[in-house]
Amino acid sequence: MSVDHPDGLRSTYEPVTATVTAGSAVTAGDPLGVLQAGHPGCPVAACLHWGVRRDRLDHLDPLVLLRPPGVRLLPWEGAAPG
To answer: Which InterPro entries does the annotation name (predicted)?
Structure first.
């Protein structure tokens, strides 16, 4: 799955089954799809591969785009209290 951003960047997410249709407009926080489990090389139940690129061959480190504000983890509604 890929998302084209107004600044010319494209973010990619895999293995994801889209819950939005190609060409749909999305905003920050909108669910894009469902992470699929069980692909080769993933040491746990499911691994998300996230990438960012400018043009076809200019790949960027996606973590650089998070600074600031950084990563913020939210509680999962199904998680046991701890």
So the answer is: Dup_hybrid_motif
Read off the tokens for 48: 């998300």
List the structure tokens of 43: 């040491």
Are 36 and 46 in contact, with CB atoms under 8 Å apart? yes
Q: Name 54's bridge partners.
A: 9, 58
- Residue 59 to residues 20, 50, 53, 68, 79, Cα–Cα distance (Å): 24, 11, 4, 20, 35
Cα distance between residue 62 and residue 67, in whole Å? 10
pLDDT in tens, 2-20: 999 998 999 999 999 999 9
Contact 74, 23 (CB under 8 A): no
- Tokens for 47, please give them: 């691994």
pTM comes to: 0.69
